[in-house]
User: Fold this.
Amino acid sequence: MMDVSNYFSKIPQSVLVSGADLNAVSTFVEDWSAQLLQTEREVLKKHPDFYAVYPQNKMRQISVDALRELKRNVYTTSQCGGRKVFVIYEADRLNAPAANALLKTLEEPTDSSSVFLVTLRPYDVLPTLRSRCWWIQLNQGTAEVGDKDLEVWLADFKKFLVRLAVENREVSVMEAYGLLYRMQNYVTQKSAHVSVQEDENLAEEARVAQTAQAEKQIIQDVFRSMELVCGDVAENYPKFRQNYPNAIQLLERCFSRTEVNFGTIPALETFLLSFYK
Assistant:
């Protein structure tokens, strides 16, 4: 992560913060929010002048009603006599009416309010919203995996890739299904331990949406790590370089299928079996 301490002395009105990891981006924004409200991040969400907006229910949309409520609070007096901070988590999930409602708020800012938009997909945020925000892009690089089970799986995936796509060795298709079976167990176990942010004011629909996002993050981390493995193979094995662009393109298409509720394992199956052609 980039050095961000120099940002915390600034008092912004509207900021779009994007990055590769939702937890990292959220932590950055919450640290900054705590600084603005002169409190600690651990108790930030209980501060009377901190307002959070989350996607709701399994559709994970941010509705216009939520933004109308935000607008009302923007133009009210601070309860503590100081600044008010508003954080819209996953701002790319704003539906069209909500985005337009937020646009009107950003067009008429107040000196006593700061509005943060948190997103992993800044280009899915309405361009007119982006243009009215100070845009901060945190380091897009992927950190160390830090998950031993996933690291072991990725090492075996790399061996599988090298044997099939580089060495042209005969590899039983059952090995591909073995990788898929192990990944299914991994995803199931990780999803079983998903937890949402502790916030007594968080509505049940927002909790459902946060759980869905946490599960989605698990899948996103798997695909991103596989992309890094493919890049490593291309760097170290010239024979794979000409196939690398096609492999990444297919991997991205397979990930896109998971975005529309196509199963993770069938999507990975499509990718792994493509090397048997």
